[in-house]
Amino acid sequence: MNESVFHSKVILFGEYSMIFDSTALMVPLRRFKAEWKMNPALDQPSEQASNKSIRKFRQYLANEAELASLFDFDRFDTDLEQGLFLDSDVPSGYGLGSSGTLTAAVWKRYANTQVDNLIDLKRIMGKMESCFHGSSSGIDPLECYLNKPFRINAQAVTLLPEDFIPADIHVFLADTGIKSNTKPLVQYFKVKREDADYLKAFQTTYVPCVSACIDNLIAGQTEAFFSTLRQLTERQLQFLRPMITDNIIDLFIEKPDFHFGVKISGSGGGGYVLGFTDDVKQTQRFLDGYDLIWL
């Protein structure tokens, strides 16, 4: 793996259910990337902003007791003084891993220890990325670091073939045109979890639906997949309505006469909506006016 380039990511399933140690499914999105670069002059505003942001991240890492011993801060400081910055085209506020790429990049370049257990690495990266979101599972930077599709639960990370998605299932991102702020959405969900009735219903109806979508997709069961995807869409309307912006609510409600379904991507609340279909042309007509990215 190129030590200086880190690609964006997409959580296909498991954004919120992973908090309950349920299964999540991740894939790289290589359309966007972040890359370490040096410019002692830092003569571009974007370079200056990146260097400043990285300095704040470095300070956060040094001040966290669990993290402070894991990095080579002497090298880190030298690089910062020599004009280190992260040249990134990963959209910020779109759930594609803008903070995940930075977290993965810092770990890859400056970690002074090796962590072979990927569950342990996810936990460390979650602690690192909490600098940006207040709370992080670590799954985003782990994907940005591995740059491979994987399935994850509380016990293990299982790497998947690049072509594990069946040929008759096409995946896309539709731009909501609204930037998402992860922190308040995560806080909202934390508050909702304190409601015993909400928590029980979420665990007994939402979480199994996510697992079924993942199982059916990996198994190549197209009909079953789109059936469980429709159920998941309805459950997101039920349990995660604030994460669905009003300008795309119709996509969650309408049922076109071909296999089609959408769900939130990342934390929701804007950014991209994730979609699946078996008919690209009909989907493009149905989503006329949306900026689409096909995975």
Topology of this structure?
Layout: E1 5-13, E2 24-38, H1 45-63, H2 73-81, E3 84-88, H3 98-110, H4 118-133, H5 139-146, E4 150-152, E5 157-159, E6 170-175, H6 182-193, H7 196-219, H8 222-239, H9 249-253, E7 260-264, E8 272-277, H10 280-286, E9 292-294
Antiparallel strand pairs: 1-2, 2-3, 2-4, 4-5, 6-8, 6-9, 7-8
Helix pairs in contact: 1-2, 3-4, 3-5, 4-5, 7-8
Structure description:
The protein has helices at about 45-65, 75-80, 100-110, 120-135, 140-145, 180-195, 195-220, 220-240, 250-255, 280-285, and strands spanning about 5-15, 25-40, 85-90, 150, 155-160, 170-175, 260-265, 270-275, 290-295. It is α+β, with helices and mostly antiparallel strands. Strands 1, 2, 3, 4 and 5 form a five-stranded antiparallel beta sheet that branches. Strands 7-8-6-9 form a four-stranded antiparallel beta sheet. Helix 3 packs across helix 5 and helix 4 (about 120-135) packs across helix 5 (about 140-145). The two termini are about 20 Å apart. The relative contact order is 0.15.
Main traits of this protein?
295 residues; alpha+beta; Ribosomal Protein S5, domain 2; Alpha-Beta Plaits; 2 domains; 4-stranded antiparallel beta sheet; 44% helix
Largest sheet: 5 strands, antiparallel
Tell me the Rg in angstroms.
19 Å
Overall pLDDT metric: 94
Please state the oligomeric state of the protein chains shown: single chain
Into how many domains do the coordinates divide? Answer: 2
Strands, count: 9
Through-space gap between termini: 21 Å
Q: At the third CATH level, what is the topology name of the largest domain?
A: Ribosomal Protein S5, domain 2
Shape assignment: globular
CATH class of the largest domain: Alpha Beta
Report the CATH architecture of the largest domain: 2-Layer Sandwich
Strand content: 15-25%
Structural class, from secondary structure content?
Answer: alpha+beta
